[in-house]
Structures are given as structure tokens and as C-alpha cells.
């Protein structure tokens, strides 16, 4: 893998490129399997219709890189600042999908990523404040200590997700779906007392 290259329909398997730095690469319809890209830096790169399977992408740096139609499964993506990537305003749905991934300590602050798909993911200490994630599916996820404030969560499906500390007064939740037990925890923000 080299900077200033284009890779189309390429499969990368068992690559170990920790702390490596790359610039201006375009990946289209590429597959990354069992790769360790932790602490690598991809600046001004484009990832289009790619998949990552069982990869370690923790502390990946992605300044001005574009992500479109990407799926991540069984991958570790701890501590990524997604706000540094390039998210064009004309694409409110970037078709990102995460399945059985670890997304702890990630920042999505202020991003518009509608119809984001998160399934069976861990998002401990994630920052989702000020973002627009309307129409997303965030099912079977663990949001322990994650931050929501002035976040647009309209029509988000949170079915079977847990540890949601969402203040009903400071987030938009119209049409959102919650499991019964998780919905009860939302009432904590209203400073009311529940009795049996």
C-alpha cells in the first residue's frame, strides 16, 4: 500500500501497518480482513464501498478522509475522532454500517450522519453531542457513559440498546424506538419519582 495510489476491488489481508502514514489514496470496493491499522494515519484519502472485517483500527487518524458506503464488522475502532474526516454536506446519509464493533471513546461531535447503522456495538464514553443521527438504527448496543446533548435522534431505533443516558429536555427524540426497560431510564432526566 502506497500513498498517491488508487486501489480498486483489492483485498488486503493480515496487513500490519501500525503507526504508518498514507496520503491521497483512493480505495474503491476494497476489502480489509484481519488487518492491524492501529494508530495509522490516512490523510486526504477516499474510502468508497469498502468493508473492514476483524480489523484493529484503534486510534486511527483520518484527517480530511472521506468515507462512503463502508461496512465494519467485528472490528475494534477505539478512540477515533470521526469529526476530522471529510463529510460533504450534500451527503447526509454516508451509508456507514458497524456490526459487532468496539467504538469506545470515539467522537462524533456535531456530525450529520443520518441513517447510521450500529448493531451489537459497544460505544462506551462516545461523544454524540450536537449531532444529527436521525433515521439511524442503533440496536443491541451498549452506550455506557456516552454523551448526548442537543442531538437529533428522531426516528432512531434503539431497540434492545442499554445504558442510554439521554436527557429528554435537551435532545430531539420524536419517533424514536426504545425497549421498555431502556425507556424507563429516560425518565430519570425529568426529576420525577416512579412508584409501583
TrEMBL record:
Span of the signal peptide: none
One Pfam family name is Pentapeptide_4
Q: Which InterPro entries match?
A: 5peptide_repeat (IPR001646), PA_immunity-related (IPR052949)
Record protein name field: Pentapeptide repeat-containing protein
